[in-house]
Amino acid sequence: MSAPTLLRPAAARRRLLAAGGWAAAAVALTGAVAPQAVAAAPQSAAPASAHASAPSKPAASSKPSAPAKPAAPSKPAAPAKPSAPSSSSSSPVHATKGTNLDEWIKQAMDVMERHDIPGTYEGIHRNIIRESSGDPQAVNNWDINAVNGVPSQGLLQVIPPTFDAYHVPGTTKNIVDPVANIVAACNYAADRYGSIDNVWGAY
Length: 203
What we know:
- About 45% of the residues lie in helices and about 0% in strands.
- It is an all-alpha fold.
- α1 packs antiparallel against α2 and α7 (about 160-165) crosses α8 (about 180-195).
């Protein structure tokens, strides 16, 4: 069975006017237009909410960072150790005592014994008599040493460079001090001749 043919509004109005007047035409026209309007509405229209995008998930809250561990307190620096006393401290200086040659020689031999410097009383005395006649202030102002500006001085006539090089701790730095002069001269003679006892002339 074929579908009924829909009449256009204008044609329907003309037929109704011919059949029954203006009132019938208005009623018929209303019924004919309404179905067309309903048919024209899209049937596939979905509720607006169907096309709305799904609400985004709330961002996951980041975990709170763990509190930083407090820094360990630094250890206090160890106090500096006091330096050890120097073992090379100079020996106490003993000035010559007495007023005669015998006492000076004996004092000098005590110092020589502590420092392992060889020499006998006789060897020291003999060389002193030859060099200065026992005068601790004797100075040679005429030999080559004097010409060179370093005159021989003291009991055993020692020049300043030799006295400085062979000075023995515990005696004074005065080249004409009797004990300091004897000990330095005997130290030099031991180094060069083996002992003051081996010296029989100018040395």
